[in-house]
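Lecture notes, unit on protein representations.

Consider one protein chain, 230 amino acids long.
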Amino acid sequence: MTGPGPGVLKAGGSRDAGPRGLRRFTQPRPPRPETCELCGALLPEEGPGHRHLVETEKRAMVCACTACSLLFDRPGTSTGRYRAVPDRYLSDPAHPLEEGAWELLQIPVGVAFFFRNAALDRLVALYPSPAGATESELDPETWQSVLGGGRLAAVLEPDVEALLLRRTQGRTTCHLVPIDICYELVGRMRLLWHGFDGGAEARAALDAFFAHVERRARVLAEEPVEARRP
């Protein structure tokens, strides 16, 4: 997932003269196969053999094969340069967000995700926009009052998981999700967004995305009464 940014070309090889040489620049090229950014192994486009790591210092997503990802998915590897992105989806319908939570968060659109940056030791709030992921400043007091006391926030893994919120029809939903799908959503919205409100195609993609999240999410189990006693 890393590499030259949009519009950056890599030069190399000999120069071809004439129409035959120009043809390779004007005709579509086959898609470049993705490889593990640690060992170079070929990766499927998606699925069990294609996992993601977070390079914590750069806040960058790194594609990895299963073997390499397992090196960073063990106890004791949560503070290194790379952290493996988990594959859990959680919801807590018994403890919904209070009315007015969205207004307190001051997010200008109907979707946002929040993750705790371990290096900065603070919450980072982002939301999709036509320009990509846009960061919103959020003071710790607001985080604590709106989200910090919830059960999902209590089990949130720093850097690799996020609280994904959506405001629709006067109701705010919250799911704990892998952080890579949040960036996937950002990329999808950037490609599909048209006009002021995104357009019908972007709204349909958004509905399908959250339907997928709701199907994957399991309900966070209630803590046993005995465990709550001092």
